[in-house]
Write a structure and sequence with these properties.
With about 240 residues, the protein is of the alpha+beta class. The protein has 8 helices and 10 strands. The protein has a 5-stranded antiparallel beta sheet with strand order 8-7-6-5-9, with no helix packed on it. The protein has a 3-stranded antiparallel beta sheet with strand order 3-4-10. Strands 1-2 form a two-stranded antiparallel ribbon. Strand 5 and strand 6 form a beta hairpin. Helix 1 crosses helix 3 (about 40-45) and helix 6 (about 90-100) crosses helix 7 (about 115-125).
């Protein structure tokens, strides 16, 4: 899939930066004063001049707005991809914490929930406060036996040069050529700024077990996982 060049143009990035600033109820001057940016520099970013907003500054701005109570992703600001920014709903975080505490073993009134619901809650708790969290359900045997079809995997996305530190790791990857995330092992690509994505299962039925010279938008190390067989075991042996 090819993404519209309009979404990644300097002017479009500038328009999204203006949207964020207005969501935070900040004038351009107030934004510059609060986050210590030069006024003329910010104006050039918002107008799309001189190449527009650079990736390094976009990361800073994303973190700044998150600390101000907005859920915003680097991908959205730079490429127009993913969910649009929105205020953090503190009530959801409070509810998740309350449910988590009720389900602790020492709780006097434990909540009886299904394993499937518990898994969903764990994933929600993992993602809360992490706008860069991503999760997928494994749909192929490319990473078997470590990851089976039906397993649920999640991680925190990394971007740009930070992806280079993930060489050799199993990651949820999102490329410019495909809007569907995959779980693959990352290796260096032959061309600058690209990566080779590898299926670790030598007997995989995946038609393209090795993808060469892939440009990645993001990569998230697989740090959270629930295996399908454990879920099914709990369903077949209810307590």
């Amino acid at each position: 899939m090819e993404y519209s060049k309009d979404l990644t143009s300097s002017k479009e990035k500038g328009a999204r930066l203006i949207t964020l600033r207005k969501m935070a109820f900040l004038t351009r001057k107030a934004f510059c004063d609060k986050y210590h940016y030069n006024y003329e520099t910010v104006r050039s970013w918002e107008n799309g001049s001189y190449g527009g907003l650079p990736a390094r500054r976009a990361k800073e701005i994303v973190n700044a707005f998150r600390s101000s109570g907005l859920i915003v992703n680097f991908e959205w600001l730079m490429y127009g991809l993913g969910e649009e920014p929105k205020p953090i709903d503190l009530s959801l975080l409070q509810e998740a914490v309350i449910l988590y505490l009720k389900e602790l073993p020492e709780s006097k009134e434990p909540v009886d929930v299904s394993e499937e619901a518990r898994m969903g809650r764990e994933l929600e708790f993992f993602c809360l406060g992490q706008p860069d969290a991503v999760s997928i359900v494994i749909e192929d045997d490319g990473m078997s036996p470590a990851y089976q079809v039906g397993d649920l995997v999640a991680g925190i996305k990394r971007y740009e040069k930070s992806i280079q530190k993930l060489i050799g790791q199993d990651c949820i990857v999102h490329s410019f050529d495909d809007d569907k995330p995959l779980l693959r092992q990352i290796h260096p690509g032959k061309e600058k700024g690209t990566y080779t994505l590898v299926c670790t299962n030598l007997d995989t039925e995946v038609k393209a077990p090795v993808l060469n010279n892939v440009r990645l938008i993001s990569a998230a190390p697989a740090v959270w996982r629930r295996k399908k067989d454990l879920i099914e075991e709990n369903h077949s042996n209810p307590k």
